[in-house]
Write a structure and sequence with these properties.
Keywords: Electron transport, FAD, Flavoprotein, Transport. Pfam families: ETF (PF01012), ETF_alpha (PF00766). There is one protein chain. This protein has about 325 residues and is an alpha/beta fold. The chain is about 25% helix and about 25% strand. It is built from eight helices and 17 strands. Helix 3 crosses helix 4 and helix 5 runs parallel beside helix 8. It is globular. The protein starts with a strand and ends with a helix. Bound molecules: flavin-adenine dinucleotide.
Amino acid sequence: MARKVLTLAEVRDGALRNVSFEAISTAKTIAEGGEVVAVVVGASVRSLAPELIAYGADRVIVVEHEKLATYTPDGYAQALQAVVEQEKPEGIVFGHTALGKDLSPKLAAKWQSGLVSDVVAVEATGGNIVFTRPIYSGKAFEKKIVTDGLMFVTVRPNNIAPLEKDESRTGAVVDVQVDIKDLRTIVRDIVRKTAEGVDLSEAKVIVAGGRGVKSAEGFEPLKELANVLGGAVGASRGACDAGYCDYSLQIGQTGKVVTPDLYIACGISGAIQHLAGMSNSKVIVAINKDPEANIFKVADYGIVGDLFEVVPLLIEEFKKL
Ligand code: FAD
């Protein structure tokens, strides 16, 4: 059954986030041969449309307004509501990001629809679309189908592969004017705690430190290793609570959920709440002094040793590559 499916493109610092392309690929599966329409919202975002087409969008809707320069829930909801009313799609796909998690339930409630959140796989079975999502902090997976209403979906970053970028793809770019009413919130300033380096939720490589790192200075070798590998630094809550790093780096049940290609856990015991945020990483390397540490149960490669000896050796070896 061919469907029309919208996706919301996410923009940060003037560039599209990877999850925008993963949402398009998810929407392609849901559309089953129907049309995938990417929606990009902002103050000046039209120039991003060709990239969305190159990643598989059949059409791009551009909603530009000075009041949409930064994300606000009611501003974006007004923009998307107008587009959904005009387009009447069967589904709409967001990234399972801070923005997507904030906005999608607001719109789903407006349409009195359910929301399939945190999707890690999608399959078209010639009728129903089957969504897979983790439950019980990643200990099990459930499969869901939507039987009624507009399909609202959020996809976990780094799980569903984007389509190959192909600049020969063509598609229409359409401007939609939306009269944005007064906003209840106005963003005056954005203060970024992790201004430097790679975005944690989209990083392909993460080097994470726990209480075993012992101090803020102890994170320096981890930062260097992340740098050498082109990755980002993360942390356990133990490390954040101890004041070794900022809470914006926290990975786990009450922190960020990440799925990098490579996760290197240094001095992290592997509490269930930490595993909830990283156990779906493709390859997990654990460095811990304690051979009984729980982290070794989920690790593909385990190194029993002192991280202050092991990490410098890894830096040295990776620098040779
Ligand atoms: P520890 O458990 O103290 O482990 C430190 C590890 O470092 C040990 O295994 C030790 O052997 C090893 N070590 C020490 N020195 C070295 C060395 N030199 N070299 C190598 N290894 C060394 N935690 C999260 O991480 N994320 C969450 O989102 C989160 N949410 C929570 C929500 C709730 C409601 C609760 C109750 C808890 C939550 N926690 C979360 C906390 C979680 O239960 C653990 O307390 C925390 O993950 C422990 O952090 P850690 O592994 O760094 O510290």
